Amino acid sequence: MKYTMKVEIPAGSITRYSFDEKGRLKVKHFQSMPVSYPANYGYIDETLADDGAASDVLVITREPLLPATYIDIKVIGYIDMTDGGEKDEKFIAVPIEDVDPTYADINSIFDLPKAELDRIYAFYSIYKQLPAGRKEVQLDGYQDEKAAYALLDKAQARFAKSVA
User: Is residue 62 part of a domain?
Assistant: First the structure.
């Protein structure tokens, strides 16, 4: 299933960018932990997650993407995450085959190399440890593409209801 993602943070960056209410790309903060984003980070268009924001997504690509660009993606699963006591799943995706055929055979998060999954998990395990006092993050493993599609169906319905 194809979704469209808007990139906020390129893979390898320590800068947390986000779009403000006027659509401007702004620096939110610099990563205090000595870790960089393991993949391009952004959100899936026309979704609304439980936390009231668009659904977060990481897309794995062969090179970093520029902030404010869009890419068509195939969601392959998600990391089950709670941030400050609220559910905050991070969907994992790859480019659709028309964008990059390299990932054509990756259909589930469990098709990725274990080292790739370990890097993503390690990043989210520690990225908010500094500065002290930030929200606590709890990770509860990975879920497959079927579970991801079910959550995204709900997020799309929530979005549609919000704009109706």
Answer: yes
